[in-house]
């Protein structure tokens, strides 16, 4: 995919729908997903003449918290601006956004920058071995600069369909006016693996903050990579960039970036400069498609929103918002490693969901009273894939305790019991030899019943597989 002569230059614009109860500038419900089309509208979000916007304070607070979580500076003065352009999903003919005075600016986020060789080496190990060997480190840290975090209103949704046999484009205004936080990075990414790492980390931060589910399938997190290519060793940015609009999948954004790198490299090799434009991702064709030439800032004729006063924030209000930020994934991972003495790899898995991390800590606290180490709890949660929605921390500790009281049996007696079950169930054995491996569970159950329910089932499985394999030769 990559050409040694060229270096990709990638920046990101990420739109995140905030999970406020009401929209950005009106009291309509913001819970638009699967609602009856055009059932959550009012004169404000329909852009009716004379309708005045009233900013949603909760959305403003949450956007600032996101900026602070990304190590940004919160601007003491901020304002909303009108971004003027014509499109059917924009009833007013402009979008209320932010231009030169965003809520937050000049931040950064550190990611682990993996290489293909490191990933290949890592794949040689089983996941179990990897979780128990924290000395293996396969990544370097890379700092991604955050240019700004600002707030704007979402647009209506266009639905391309057929009406009475004719192709038509329908408009659903339920989404119009939903608060959007936009995170804009500097063009610091050099490969798709870095983009993927950053996006997953950002999604996790948003969920830890509780400001959005950032659900890709529901469109509450949408990705727009800006991609260009320059010659290796060139320091200045290319004189063009291509923006791929509104991607709602990590997998699709990786595909779109890889496709664009290849397409642009081929054009440069022919002596052609890629056109500065907006493109869309066509999953069916596996390629990006041209939409329109990319606008510059002056094309939008930004000017301050006259119906909304400027916003002024003092140190106390910003500090109060900072105090509301919970322990974020990076800090939690470091604490789990130092406090609970578990591997960094296991800590990362446990912190992939805030609920799972909280569940782990609750279980560790109960387990401590029963002399179970945090490492034992972590291994149960990770390696045994415990469904934490169906078992309480107290029940999990009891399960671990019961497992420590396994029925002891000699290898000779276990082999005799397994051989007896195999002899008594010839059809199941025959099915297994024909490739119906699911029947192994039936045979394990028979052995366990014949010996003792407290026997280690993994031990039974290993012995069954050993004998069946031996007999099949």
Keywords:
473 residues, alpha+beta, Arc Repressor Mutant, subunit A, nine-stranded mixed beta sheet, three-stranded antiparallel beta sheet, 16 strands, 38% helix, elongated
Task: Give the secondary structure arrangement, pairings included.
Elements: E1 6-17, H1 57-69, E2 73-74, E3 77-78, E4 81-84, E5 94-97, E6 104-113, H2 116-122, H3 127-131, E7 140-153, E8 157-163, E9 166-172, E10 179-185, H4 192-209, E11 221-231, E12 242-244, H5 250-269, E13 277-282, E14 287-293, E15 303-304, E16 311-312, H6 315-323, H7 329-340, H8 344-350, H9 354-369, H10 374-383, H11 393-403, H12 411-424, H13 426-433, H14 439-451, H15 457-472
Helix pairs in contact: 4-5, 7-8, 8-10, 9-10, 9-11, 12-14, 12-15, 13-14, 14-15
Description:
- There is one protein chain.
- The chain has helices at residues 57-69, 116-122, 127-131, 192-209, 250-269, 315-323, 329-340, 344-350, 354-369, 374-383, 393-403, 411-424, 426-433, 439-451, 457-472; strands at residues 6-17, 73-74, 77-78, 81-84, 94-97, 104-113, 140-153, 157-163, 166-172, 179-185, 221-231, 242-244, 277-282, 287-293, 303-304, 311-312.
- The strands form four sheets. A nine-stranded mixed beta sheet has the order 2-6-7-10-1-11-12-13-14. Strands 5-4-15 form a three-stranded antiparallel beta sheet, with no helix packed on it. The protein has a two-stranded antiparallel ribbon with strand order 3-16.
- It has 15 helices and 16 strands.
- With 473 residues, it is of the alpha+beta class.
- Residues 115-138 have low confidence and may be disordered.
- 38% of the residues lie in helices and 21% in strands.
- The protein has three domains: 6-315, no CATH class; 327-403, no CATH class; 411-472, Arc Repressor Mutant, subunit A, CATH 1.10.10.
């Amino acid at each position: 995919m990559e050409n040694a002569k060229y270096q990709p230059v990638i920046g990101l614009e990420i739109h995140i729908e905030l999970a406020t109860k009401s929209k950005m500038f009106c009291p309509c419900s913001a819970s638009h997903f699967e609602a009856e089309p055009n059932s959550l509208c009012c004169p404000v979000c329909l852009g009716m003449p004379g309708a005045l916007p009233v900013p949603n304070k909760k959305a403003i607070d949450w956007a600032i918290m996101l900026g602070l979580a990304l190590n940004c500076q919160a601007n003491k003065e901020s304002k909303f601006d009108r971004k003027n352009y014509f499109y059917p999903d924009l009833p007013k003919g402009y979008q209320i956004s932010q231009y030169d005075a965003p809520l937050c600016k000049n931040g950064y986020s550190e990611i682990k920058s993996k290489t293909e060789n490191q990933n290949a080496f890592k794949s040689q190990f089983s996941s179990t071995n990897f979780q128990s060997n924290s000395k293996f480190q396969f990544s370097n840290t890379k700092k991604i600069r955050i240019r700004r975090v600002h707030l704007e209103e979402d647009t209506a949704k266009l639905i391309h369909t057929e009406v009475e046999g004719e192709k038509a484009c329908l408009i659903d205004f339920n989404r119009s006016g939903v608060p959007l936080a936009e995170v804009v990075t500097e063009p610091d990414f050099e490969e798709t693996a870095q983009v993927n790492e950053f996006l997953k980390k950002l999604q996790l931060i948003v969920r830890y903050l509780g400001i959005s589910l950032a659900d890709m399938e529901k469109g509450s997190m949408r990705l727009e990579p800006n991609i260009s290519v320059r010659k290796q060793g060139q320091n200045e940015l290319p004189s063009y960039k291509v923006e791929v609009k509104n991607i709602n999948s990590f997998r699709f954004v990786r595909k779109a970036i890889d496709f664009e790198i290849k397409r642009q490299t081929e054009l440069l090799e022919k002596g052609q400069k890629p056109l500065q434009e907006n493109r869309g991702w066509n999953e069916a064709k596996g390629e990006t498609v041209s939409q329109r030439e990319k606008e510059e800032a002056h094309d939008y004729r930004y000017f301050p929103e006259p119906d909304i006063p400027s916003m002024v924030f003092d140190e106390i209000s910003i500090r109060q918002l900072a105090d509301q930020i919970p322990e974020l994934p990076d800090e939690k991972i470091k604490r789990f490693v130092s406090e609970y003495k578990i591997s960094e790899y296991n800590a990362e898995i446990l912190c992939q969901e805030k609920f799972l991390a909280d569940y782990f800590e609750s279980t560790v606290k109960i387990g401590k009273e029963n002399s179970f180490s945090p490492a034992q709890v972590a291994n149960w949660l990770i390696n045994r894939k415990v469904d934490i929605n169906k078992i309480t921390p107290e029940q999990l500790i009891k399960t671990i305790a019961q497992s420590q009281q396994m029925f002891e049996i000699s290898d000779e007696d276990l082999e005799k019991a397994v051989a007896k079950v195999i002899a008594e169930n010839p059809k199941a054995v025959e099915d297994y030899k024909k490739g119906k491996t699911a029947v192994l569970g039936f045979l394990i159950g028979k052995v366990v019943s014949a010996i003792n329910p407290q026997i280690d089932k993994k031990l039974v499985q290993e012995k069954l597989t050993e004998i069946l394999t031996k007999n099949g030769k």
